[in-house]
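Subject: Re: docking follow-up (zinc ion)

Dear J.,

Thanks for your patience while I sorted out the input files. As discussed at Tuesday's group meeting, I've set up the holo structure prediction with zinc ion included as the bound ligand rather than trying to dock it afterwards. The sequence and the ligand SMILES I used are pasted below, so you can double-check that they match what you have on your end before we go further.
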Amino acid sequence: MAEELFTVRLMVDRSCNRVVFAESDGRFVDILMSFLTYPLATILRLTGNQVPFGSMNKLYESVASVDSRCLCSEACRSMLLDPIYLAAEECSRLPINIDEKHDLCCYICSDPDCDAEYLSFYANAQCSCGSSMAKKVRFSQSRGSTVKSEAGVFVVSSLGFMISDDLVVSQHSLVEICSLFARLGIEQGRNLEAMDVNLTADVITELLKRILVSDSPLTDVFLGEPKEKGKLMPLKNHSTHQIQARTSRTKPFSVKLMLNENGKKLVFAEADDEFVNLLVSYLTYPMGLVEKKLEGRSGIRCFDNLYRSIIESLASADCFKGVDLMNLLLNPELPRHLILEKNLLGFSLQRKEKFYICRTYDCDSDQVSTIGNAKCKGCKQISNRRLWAVNGSDGFMAQGRYMVRDDLVVKPLSSVMIVRDFLRQAHGGVQVMSVEIGQEEFAINVARSFQALALLRASVTSTQVLTDALMVGDNEIKSL
Ligand SMILES: [Zn+2]
Ligand SMILES: [Zn+2]
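The structure tokens for the complex came back this morning:
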């Protein structure tokens, strides 16, 4: 990757050593906005899974270490830990792209005589014939333009932007500056000083890490307060906004919560693969999708600000290169193959993607096209075979019962583990509480909403996900 270095100008308040705002053309804004296109698993991978990100860290680790028998296939592990995202190609055109994504390739059955019509975006999927899908093939054309555009990726790069320390992005304007000064309590112009900093891939990665845990990522990265440096504290969830849960017609999932004797503390939850599939599928959600579902109030302030800046100021000022590019940030979609058939968050199941590959005997073309009846580049004939993408719609985790800890450590349930790790801790007494997620009556009473949305928000902001999302209200409590 050719890295093109560029400079961003910071306005620094020397009296308290903080960044008041950064000034940049569209390139820096493109980089910040690209963070919204990353699936949560990608954010965890890029930050080395070292920065607290709610309970997503433990969920990611659980998927990475779970026994293969607990997964529908090894390919499901890759789907969850390294999911495809639809903006990857746009991100590859960023001036600094910290996700050096391998080119989009896919795999077909390694048996040349197999006529199964499948293609997988992930290595190690098993073909219906029993062979491994290990033959690597490439897309004959990329989805969008591959020309490296001078004019930016998402926003018009020639425009000038102002970015506050907590990542509110706006165009330059006196009004914005005055309101920012008022918000920070700065007397105009006093102790302010301009400072130029260089952006590199390391700096951008550091920025992504700080966004997860801090309300002042620019100050942290560029001025580095020695007191705080290296210490990453999780953010408090300061969002009290209640989200209007949509009425769900899906059959509810049932989860059993094991509580300690006085019913105050969650010991662990027992759930089937459907519930666990819902949890692990969060790993595949782009951050922008999380923001969209939570209406820009995930509780991670900098991400919320980035997302809401699009709606509140950039969209109306026509800062984007196109509506489709803005929608990659504002209304990101999941690739079809990652959408669970039973989904509580109301993803529309668009038509399955179709792919085509040459089937002329002896042609060794390894090109896959999304267009049918196209001339093969190798043998120049028009003779296509249709392929369907292997997908995770039936679930990623194998059928069974699982133990889910409050911080989203997920393991297959075992009696030995229950006794060894939990009953002892609970000092004998345990209460069982059943909750149902996705039931209609809960949608009416938002305060008691046991919806997937509450679970999603708790997953990205809390280390007591089940307690925060499920243990409200007075549920039926059964004695063990
Ligand atoms: Zn096969
Ligand atoms: Zn051919």
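A couple of observations from a first look. DSSP finds 16 helices and 19 strands in the chain. Residues 253-273+401-479 form one domain.

Let me know if you'd like me to rerun anything.

Best regards,
T.
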